[in-house]
C-alpha cells in the first residue's frame, strides 16, 4: 500500500472515547425526546402526561445506530480535516439528523428560532413529527441532507453522484439493511466500477445491520459473516466489520475501522494522483452490526423491544399509566444532567468534539449545492440550426442535431468538469453519438480492443444498464452543484417514476426554504418514443411519464414536446440554463421533416404555443375547425391531414395550432406557464370543434383543459395499440393518422352535410389499402413514405 498522507496517528484515548460516548448519549437523548416531548425537554421538572405529545409518530429503531455513526464521523472530519457529507439511507429516523445538526450548532444557525437554550430545546422537541412542524424522516428542511427519507434505495446512487468530479469529497453513506433489499440499492454496490480515484472523491458505505425491517428480519443480517464478506468482496469492496452492543467496546472498534478505511481511501487516491495508477482498487466499507433500538427500552408490556422489530417505530406507546415512568427511566438513562448546562446548552467539552464552520456535516456546502453552482459556458444554440428554406423542405434527425450542441458544451466546460450525461446504455441509440467527439464513456473496469469510447475520465455515464443508478447519479451530481441531463427511452423512464416524483417533491419544499440555494434543473430527455417502435413493439410503448409529472406541483414541473430540431435546440438551451425545475423533453430521433426556421422556432418556443399561419387558411375569418397538435408525430399527421382537407374541401377554414409547452393548456391560475382564459379562447375559439392530435394518452389533454370554455374538444392519442409493425400503422392502430383525423374533422362539421361523404369514403378506402400494402410489402404506402408538405 502506498504511503498515507500526513495525519496524526496517535491512538484514540479512553478519555476521548468517553467524551464521544457522552456526545452519543446527548444525541440519543434528543432523538428520543423529539419523539415524545412537548415540554420539559431536559426533565428538569417531574414528568407528567401534559409534557407528552398526544399522538406519537416517528421511528426509533435506526436512530441510535445512525447517531453512533455521526459522532464518529465528526472525529474523522476533525482528524483528517476531511470535506465530508453524510447521506442517510434507512428512510425514517430523521430525528437523528436533526439532533446532531442541533448539537453541532448548524440547526440553530439555519433556524434561529430553535436556539441553543431551553426554549430552543422545547421547540426542537415539539416540532418533530407534529402539525406545523417537521417530518419524521430526513427531509429538505434538514441541514446537511441531500437524500429524502422517502427515497428508500437511492442513497448509494446519490452518494456516487455527489463525488463524481469532487476529488476532495468523501460521501459517507449509511445504508439500512432493509433498504439494502431494494433493487436500486442492491445494484448500487457496482457503482465502484465508475469511480476514478484520480479525479473523483470517494464513497464510504456503512451498512447498518440492525436486523429488522418493520416487522420482519432483514436478509443480510441473517446470513453468515463469511457469506457477507464474500458477497462484498465479489462486488469489489473491502469490508470492515464493527459488531457488538457494549458501547465503549464499540466506540473503540468503530474508531479503528474508520481510521483504517480513511487511510486506505487516502492511499488509493494518492497512488492514483501521484503515480497515475488507475487500476481499479478495492474500496473500503464498514459493516456496522448493532441491536435495533440500541440503548432504548429493553422490554415493554412483556414484549422485547431492543434487538427486535418492535423497536422500529415508537417503542413505548404511552397508552398505559406505567408507561410514563418507563419513558422517564429511559430518558434519564442518558443522564442529560451531565450533558447540558443550566441553560440547556451542550456543555463546552462535548461541543468541542464537533467540527466547526463548513466542516460540520450540517453546513457542508456540498449538501446545499446551489452554494457551489456555477453557470455552464454554453455555445449559441442558434449556431446549430437546421436550415429550413420552407416548411417540410428538408429532413433531419432532431437528436443528432442536439448531439452537436451537447458535444460543444463538453468542450467549453472541459476545465470546469461540471457537466455530464446520464442514461442506461442508450446514448448511441438515442442519436447523441456526436458527444463522443469530445468525451468518452466513464469506465474503470477491464477494457478490450473491441470496446468503443471507454475511458477512466469519460463524462458520459451510460455504461450501466440501470435507470435507477443513472438517474440517482444525476440527482447526486445536481444536488452538489453541477449540471447534466438524463436521456432514456420514453417507455423505460417509467422505471424511475418514483425517483423523479421524490425529486420534484424535494424541489417543491426547497422553494419554500430561503437557505436552500437553487440547483440546476433535473432535465429528462425522452427519446425512442412511442410512435416509432418498428422492431421493439408493444413493450416499448408508454407515454405515461407525461401524466405522472404533470400532476406534480406547478412551480416545479415543465413539459416540452418540440416538433422539430430547431425547436428542440431552443427548448434544451432553456432547460439546461434553468434552476429548480423538473424539465421533461419528449423528442424524435428518426428522420423527420423540419418545419420552422431557427428564428421562427425561438419565437414559437418562447411562447410555447401558437398558430402556424403557413399551415392555416382562416386568416381574417372565423375558423370552422381548430386542428391542434402536440409532439413530433401528431404534428406530422395533422399537417398531412390539413393537406388532404384543403385540397378536397378548400371551403373549410382551418386553424392549425402547435403546442410545445404542454402546460400552456392549463389555466394560468393553476400553472405559471398557463394561458389566461382570454388567451386560450383567442387561440382555440369558444365553440369551434377542436381536433387535437396528442403524443400521449388523450385523457391528459382533457385534464388540462376541462376548465376551459370550449368543451367541443376531441383528443386523439395513444390507445395502447400496436406491436411489431410499420411506423404509420402504429398511428393507424391508435387513430391519430391523417386518414382518421380527416374523418373526424368531417364528423364534427355538420354544416358540410353530404359534401364530406365522398372524402370519408376515400379515407376508409385508404385505410384498407394501407393494411393490405403493409402485409404484402412490409413497409408503408409510398404516398405516406414520400409525403411532403406542399401548400
Automatic annotation (TrEMBL):
Residues 589-789 form the Xylulose 5-phosphate/Fructose 6-phosphate phosphoketolase C-terminal domain. Keywords: Coiled coil, Lyase, Thiamine pyrophosphate. It is an enzyme of class 4 (lyase). The keyword Lyase applies. GO terms for biological process: carbohydrate metabolic process. Residues 12-371 form the Xylulose 5-phosphate/Fructose 6-phosphate phosphoketolase N-terminal domain. Pfam families: XFP (PF03894), XFP_C (PF09363), XFP_N (PF09364). The keyword Electron transport does not apply. Its cofactor is thiamine diphosphate. GO terms for molecular function: aldehyde-lyase activity. Its EC number is 4.1.2.-. Residues 251-278 form a coiled coil. InterPro entries: Phosphoketolase, THDP-binding, Transketo_C/PFOR_II, Xul5P/Fru6P_PKetolase, Xul5P/Fru6P_PKetolase_C, Xul5P/Fru6P_PKetolase_CS, Xul5P/Fru6P_PKetolase_N, Xul5P/Fru6P_PKetolase_ThDP_BS. Belongs to the XFP family. This is Probable phosphoketolase. It comes from Roseburia intestinalis L1-82.
